[in-house]
Amino acid sequence: MSTVRLRFAPSPTGYLHVGGARTALFNWLLARKQGGTFVLRIEDTDVARSTQESVDAILQGMEWLGLDWDEGPFYQSERFPVYKEFVEKLLAEGKAYKCYCTPEELEERRELAMREGRKPKYDGTCRNRTGELPDRPYTVRFKAPYEGVTAFDDLIKGRIAFNNEELDDLIIQRSDGTPTYNFVVVIDDATMGITTVIRGDDHVNNTPRQILLYEALGYPVPRFAHVPMILGADKTRLSKRHGATSVMAYRDMGFLPEAMVNYLVRLGWSHGDEEIFSRDDLIEKFSIEAVGKSAGVFNPDKLLWLNHHYIKESAPERLAELLVPFLKERGVDPAAGPRLPLVVKTLQERSRTMVEMADGAIFYYKGDFAYEEQAAAKHFVPDAAPLLAALAGKLEALADFSQTGIEALFKEFIAYKGIKLGQVGPAVRVALCGGTASPGIYEVVEALGREETVARLRRAVAFIAG
Ligand code: GLU
């Protein structure tokens, strides 16, 4: 086991967003590639906004994508004593100080600084104070250096440097005793031995402050990789305006997890011009250095294309299992008709999502459909009735009721009648499926089975006569 340790650290304030899922995926891939450890940490220090429901939704999203974690989930809300200890340590070492300035005083000084054209940063009143004010509430501030530069080599963005002058004396503990975000992230990543931090680039500005904390605490600074955000087609940050942003919404829209994983990884990462990657491929080929510097644009058509690919490739038995909830949603009982894997097989080529597959499967299970008006008008002509009746009789007596047997029967039938398949095929299709868009006739006949096929042909004959 290598000592490489990565983590995903979501804040449970909503569902698992596609951007978060991609961050989790990159971390997971790197951990798996390097034989390292993948840690899951729930950043729930913001008690007002964190919910158990969101935690569950995030875990569910990760499980759906197959991103298994080796340690955790750890909850920051359960680690307050640890954070407290580190605040005390920094205070004792003189690397942090108690700040008694009230919010009103701070606001006043901030406004003054702005008026005088100075940077509105903390003025150091309590940094320079000697002695304590025992009866006054206080925050704890980190004593950051006023001079010098804090820099790091981002694995994606390259070298990033900040002048320490621009950084503030960060509050690490609020006046109510709770620790602040930038502080707990460092304590956790340091004590959990995280070696590489992959996260969204909205955290770039936090990184120098965090680095200074690692240094003050005497912990090694991890490597950082800040992933560019995901944009919608109009090049603005991906949001609900562009469509679903929750990973689980994509499951409900009929996407397969392997399509989602393949899609997410390509949003920012590339390997030559390859598009299709199995999980093992990804573990072998992924590298964080090959993630691009520019933001990925979410392209629903490409996701559909990938999903179609994986639907075509999947075992019908597996798809059948996944299809059941979609059918039930449509009021279809899959036990009341042909065996589902058989039905799936007829629909794989023509379904881009499981929703399309479910819609396409309904006619197998609900034979009492109304015929599509235009299709019936065009193909249910008087001449069609005797042909459909004759076919019904022949199918009733067919010994080999397999696709090959059925196809042979149709060919023999049209040769004998001296007609072309086009003169009877569409009417058969409308009779069996209700419309003209359907899988191949022979497949449909085989999947429906003898009894149902014959019944539907005779129903059409009666319809034409009536
Ligand atoms: N909890 C943070 C977020 O959800 C992530 C912090 C980090 O990865 O360092 O944005």
Automatic annotation (TrEMBL):
- Which residue ranges does the UniProt annotation give for the motif 'KMSKS' region? 237-241
Q: Which reaction does it catalyse?
A: tRNA(Glu) + L-glutamate + ATP = L-glutamyl-tRNA(Glu) + AMP + diphosphate
- Glutamyl/glutaminyl-tRNA synthetase class Ib catalytic domain spans which residues? 4-305
* Name of the top EC class for this enzyme: ligase
Keywords attached to this Swiss-Prot or TrEMBL record, sorted alphabetically, are: Aminoacyl-tRNA synthetase, ATP-binding, Cytoplasm, Ligase, Nucleotide-binding, Protein biosynthesis
The answer to keyword Protein biosynthesis applying to this record is: yes
Which Gene Ontology terms of cellular component type are present? cytosol
Subcellular locations according to the entry: Cytoplasm
Transmembrane stretches, start-end: none
> For the motif 'HIGH' region, what are the positions?
10-20
Q: Which residues bind ATP?
A: K240
Predominant location category? cytoplasm
**Gene3D superfamilies referenced in this protein's UniProt entry, alphabetically:** 1.10.10.350, HUPs (3.40.50.620)
E.C. code: 6.1.1.17
Q: Which GO terms describe its molecular function?
A: ATP binding; glutamate-tRNA ligase activity; tRNA binding; zinc ion binding
Q: Where does the Aminoacyl-tRNA synthetase class I anticodon-binding domain start and stop, copy by copy?
A: 318-460
Q: Which NCBIfam families match?
A: gltX_bact, PRK05710.1-4
Instruction: Provide the assembly information.
Output: Monomer.
Role noted for this protein: Catalyzes the attachment of glutamate to tRNA(Glu) in a two-step reaction: glutamate is first activated by ATP to form Glu-AMP and then transferred to the acceptor end of tRNA(Glu).
Q: What is this protein called?
A: Glutamate--tRNA ligase
Gene source species: Geobacter pickeringii
- Provide the organism lineage as a comma list: Bacteria, Pseudomonadati, Thermodesulfobacteriota, Desulfuromonadia, Geobacterales
Q: Which gene holds the coding sequence for this protein?
A: gltX
